[in-house]
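@channel sequence for tomorrow's demo:
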Amino acid sequence: MELSIIEEEIIFLKAINEIIDSMVNFEILSLNGSDPDSSIMFESSTHMSFFNVILVDFLSRTDRGAPVKQTSYLDALKSISESPCFNINNSIEQLRLAAQDFVDWLKQKVEVDIWLPSIDTQALIKIERLDFLKMCGNISKHNFLRAAGVAKGLKKTLEESGVSIEMDNALLSLGDFYGRFHTDILGYHASTIVEFLNNIRWGIYEYLQPEFQRSIVWDKDNPPMYRYTYPEGVSSKLAQEYYWALMNEVRSPPYMRRFQVARWLKLQY
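structure tokens (generated this afternoon):
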């Protein structure tokens, strides 16, 4: 199936909405405080692990067999921001800024002092936030026998920081790494990450408001019924279904209000 540019955009936006809504909702977490000192709290450690697993999917590439080009969701957002199909009066701007802010934050390297008691090793490591979030999410998802790739990544990270270990010790260290980077550091950064994701979700909503207003048609029934007018270039059944679902999603604002995370939750790591 060959999709048009507008059809690909629709499918990506629908997928991004769906994956963010599965992470940023009040079943998984609660929003506490008031701006500019808001914070989030997970309902349990299990919900936090679930969040990390889904976050890894969001930060990864789409499947090779998917109907759209293989790319990461954030790269897809970048492409959409550069050549948006539904941009009216710069409605894309907030989405563009939200996606770029998250990408910039993820690419930053941080220094973390870590103690690995399983192998009696202390290290000061430098690692991109994107990398440790993916590593922790994969540990959340897999037993250690399916985490050899994460162990290999940990071994490489330690070696780049001047600490050489064997592969078996890297496997033994996964629990220590997880405790430091998932329990401690992801727990610290969770409010900031949710703020980024929520801003992207709001950005999609605001970007598509002009298209929603153009598309919706109310019929004179009792009770009133509505339908959507497909834009030019949306002809495949798949894209039409996702377009309809996407328009339904932007009929109402996102679940969670816009919020600003407390400054003290953005000072470390």
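heads up for whoever presents: The mean pLDDT is 94.
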